[in-house]
Amino acid sequence: AQTVTQSQPEMSVQEAETVTLSCTYDTSENNYYLFWYKQPPSRQMILVIRQEAYKQQNATENRFSVNFQKAAKSFSLKISDSQLGDTAMYFCAFETSGSRLTFGEGTQLTVNP
Amino acid sequence: EPEVTQTPSHQVTQMGQEVILRCVPISNHLYFYWYRQILGQKVEFLVSFYNNEISEKSEIFDDQFSVERPDGSNFTLKIRSTKLEDSAMYFCASRWDRGNTIYFGEGSWLTVV
């Protein structure tokens, strides 16, 4: 069974600074997809970024980027120039060709003014 | 941008009552999902639906749960006899194909009293 681990239940960062959220996963599959979802207080699930395991290049989406280390099964999210609106719960998620998403426990990020 | 819509946004029901949660997936999507998030916990997969049948379900999705796509646009989750532990946010999601981005609705918050 696949598992996703987020070891940081809570993190905080000052506005305009950079923060990195950690995620590790366990799988025996070779082809899979990784995602970061953001859940603000409204509780909606918003896709932040996705990474295909077969791609060596790290995905980037504006201020959000990932550090994907396939051999280490690590998938961290870096948020640059943090903004107050980035305050949310962040979930790392994993999917194989079998179509279900497996989520981590989440990291509550607070951006302080 | 197309979106997944869910109704109701919040429902309070008495234990033992039947509940139907409704979802309208994005129109050209082929894969449909229900996920659940108990307050303070991670998001959990319930069921996936493709080609008018369940393609995968989790151990949570027992005989009390059922899904239906009655008219080609709606996708419903029915809980036959609600229990206190069914209190959670229920997310509907859809996507075009495996590996593509899964889009989540805003969730239906179910409170069982």
Please sum up the structure shown.
The complex is a heterodimer of chains A (113) and B (113). Chain A is mainly β and 113 residues long.
Distinctive features:
heterodimer; A: 113 residues; mainly beta; 6-stranded mixed beta sheet; 4-stranded antiparallel beta sheet; B: 113 residues; 7-stranded mixed beta sheet; 0% helix; 50% strand
Helix and strand arrangement:
The complex is a heterodimer of chains A (113) and B (113).
Chain A: E1 3-5, E2 10-14, E3 19-21, E4 24-26, E5 32-39, E6 46-52, E7 60-61, E8 64-69, E9 74-79, E10 88-96, E11 101-103, E12 107-112
Parallel strand pairs in A: 2-12
Antiparallel strand pairs in A: 1-4, 3-9, 5-6, 5-10, 7-8, 8-9, 10-11, 10-12
Chain B: E1 5-7, E2 10-13, E3 19-24, E4 31-37, E5 43-50, E6 53-57, E7 65-68, E8 75-79, E9 88-95, E10 103-104, E11 108-112
Parallel strand pairs in B: 2-11
Antiparallel strand pairs in B: 1-3, 3-8, 4-5, 4-9, 5-6, 7-8, 9-10, 9-11
* Number of distinct beta strands of chain B: 11
Unreliable stretches covering 5 or more consecutive residues of chain B = none
Structural class of chain A: mainly beta
Rg result of chain A: 13 Å
Number of helices of chain B: 0
Q: Which segments of chain A are poorly predicted (pLDDT under 50) over 5 or more consecutive residues?
A: none
> Can you give the helix content of chain A as a percent range?
under 10%
Largest interface, C-beta closer than 8 angstroms, per-chain residues: A-B, 24 and 25 residues
Main beta sheet of chain A, described? 6 strands, mixed
Helical/strand content category of chain B: mainly beta
Folded structure, characterized:
By secondary structure, chain A is mainly β. Chain A is 0% helix and 54% strand. Chain A contains no helices and twelve strands. Chain A has strands spanning 3-5, 10-14, 19-21, 24-26, 32-39, 46-52, 60-61, 64-69, 74-79, 88-96, 101-103, 107-112. In chain A, the strands form three sheets. In chain A, strands 2, 5, 6, 10, 11 and 12 form a six-stranded mixed sheet that branches. A four-stranded antiparallel sheet of chain A has the order 3-9-8-7, with no helix packed on it. Chain A is globular. The N and C termini of chain A lie far apart (41 Å). Chain B is an all-beta fold and 113 residues long. Helices cover 0% and strands 50% of the residues of chain B. Chain B is built from no helices and eleven strands. Chain B has strands at 5-7, 10-13, 19-24, 31-37, 43-50, 53-57, 65-68, 75-79, 88-95, 103-104, 108-112. In chain B, strands 2, 4, 5, 6, 9, 10 and 11 form a seven-stranded mixed sheet that branches. In chain B, strands 1-3-8-7 form a four-stranded antiparallel sheet, with no helix packed on it. In chain B, strand 5 (43-50) and strand 6 form a beta hairpin. Chain B starts with a strand and ends with a strand.
